[in-house]
Amino acid sequence: VSMQSILDAYSVMPPVTRAYTTACVLTTLAVQLDFVTPFHLYFNWELIVKHGQIWRLLTSFCFFGSFGFSFVFNMIFNYRYCLMLEEGSFRGRRADFVYMFILGALFMMVSAIFVHMLFLGQAFTIMLVYVWARRNPHIRMNFFHVLSFHAPYLPWVLLLFSLLLGNNVLVDFLGIACGHMYYFLEDVFPRQEGGMRILETPSLLVYLFDEREPEPIAEEERPGGFDFAEVPVEGQM
């Protein structure tokens, strides 16, 4: 893969995917170059509240470990499913997508306080995978050309894969739980009898992130008060 093809792929990324992917790569690069250490980045509620280290609310979602197979694997999944959500079910709804990021992060941070999880990026990736998978139930997946299944099973296959590798499956469980909470409140509950949409995107996010099309100019507002409709077309004078 050439550097130019990477730059071309980067330039066409939708904005939310580009911003999060860039933050993850730059955070990991900063650790590799010894500008910071993981001890400056991990999630610690006491340091955030009592010492004002609020950057940990962001950096704990952006560090995926040192460069290597695990980092590449996580970044591919992160980029792929973030991109497919932004260009799929959230197309034209950027504010809703940002709101999902915020809600998912809040769900995870509250959970992390009780389960003592230090880095939340992998769980966040699983959450993105879960939401995408539930919204695309009929897509067939092929995992390393070994397993074939429908998309909703993908988060559980990844959990099994983590278990086989000896990783902490609590990370996957947390991502699945937060993804299901968002999916249920946004996609399931509003469609049930007596249900309603609870996760209404705040108007501030809509104002900041949604693209607004320019309003058409009314006839009477055209410059100079000139009636352009009366201008003769060449050849019809």
Automatic annotation (TrEMBL):
<dbReference type="InterPro" id="IPR035952">
    <property type="entry name" value="Rhomboid-like_sf"/>
</dbReference>
<dbReference type="InterPro" id="IPR007599">
    <property type="entry name" value="DER1"/>
</dbReference>
<comment type="similarity">
    <text>Belongs to the derlin family.</text>
</comment>
<protein>
    <recommendedName>
        <fullName>Derlin</fullName>
    </recommendedName>
</protein>
<feature type="transmembrane region" description="Helical">
    <location>
        <begin position="55"/>
        <end position="77"/>
    </location>
</feature>
<dbReference type="GO" id="GO:0005789">
    <property type="term" value="C:endoplasmic reticulum membrane"/>
</dbReference>
<feature type="transmembrane region" description="Helical">
    <location>
        <begin position="142"/>
        <end position="163"/>
    </location>
</feature>
<keyword id="KW-0256">Endoplasmic reticulum</keyword>
<keyword id="KW-0472">Membrane</keyword>
<dbReference type="Pfam" id="PF04511">
    <property type="entry name" value="DER1"/>
</dbReference>
<keyword id="KW-1133">Transmembrane helix</keyword>
<feature type="transmembrane region" description="Helical">
    <location>
        <begin position="20"/>
        <end position="43"/>
    </location>
</feature>
<keyword id="KW-0812">Transmembrane</keyword>
<feature type="transmembrane region" description="Helical">
    <location>
        <begin position="97"/>
        <end position="130"/>
    </location>
</feature>
<comment type="function">
    <text>May be involved in the degradation of misfolded endoplasmic reticulum (ER) luminal proteins.</text>
</comment>
<dbReference type="GO" id="GO:0036503">
    <property type="term" value="P:ERAD pathway"/>
</dbReference>
